[in-house]
Specification:
Layout lengths: L2 H10 L16 H13 L1 H13 L7 H17 L4 H7 L3 H22 L7 H17 L9
Helix pairs in contact: 2-3, 2-4, 4-6, 6-7
């Protein structure tokens, strides 16, 4: 396998450049661990997410960088104590963190499919709307783990 193919694979799964390690600046290895947990625990769902843009003839949002952003969001929700009830319900474990991550990722995918934004430039506003809904669900004790 040549270096070109390795670079292409990184770009295809949604990293921003030739060196994926630079994408993990904000989350460190937790970002990578979250992506790996998701891919190992729910491989069919990950394939569905990655296939969606190709099926529609568009590139909706990049899987890897979106996952890294969601890891950062989960960290912030924890710091702000907005998901305490979620952790009290499911346990204060790293696995619960990963399940929160998957829950938010799935809500993002669902909302993106439902609203069908014009392009990737709508990612920020769509993510913001999803996070508002997540925060409301968490406050009402209605945020539950996704079972796929």
């Amino acid at each position: 396998m040549t270096f070109y193919y390795i670079i292409y694979d990184f770009l295809h799964i949604g990293f921003q450049g030739f060196n994926p390690s630079t994408d993990f600046r904000s989350t460190g290895t937790l970002g990578l661990d979250s992506l790996l947990y998701f891919a190992k625990k729910h491989p069919a769902f990950v394939r569905e997410i990655m296939q969606f843009g190709e099926d529609e003839g568009i590139r909706w949002f990049s899987f890897a960088i979106t996952g890294i952003n969601i890891t950062s969001v989960c960290q912030q929700l924890l710091r702000d104590r907005k998901v305490n009830i979620f952790f009290l319900r499911y346990g204060v474990t790293l696995e619960t963190f990963y399940e929160l991550y998957i829950t938010i990722f799935s809500r993002l995918q669902f909302y993106w499919k439902a609203t069908r934004p014009d392009n990737m430039m709508q990612f920020g506003p769509v993510l913001k709307k999803v996070l508002e809904k997540v925060a409301i669900s968490a406050e009402r004790d209605e945020l539950v783990k996704l079972y796929v």
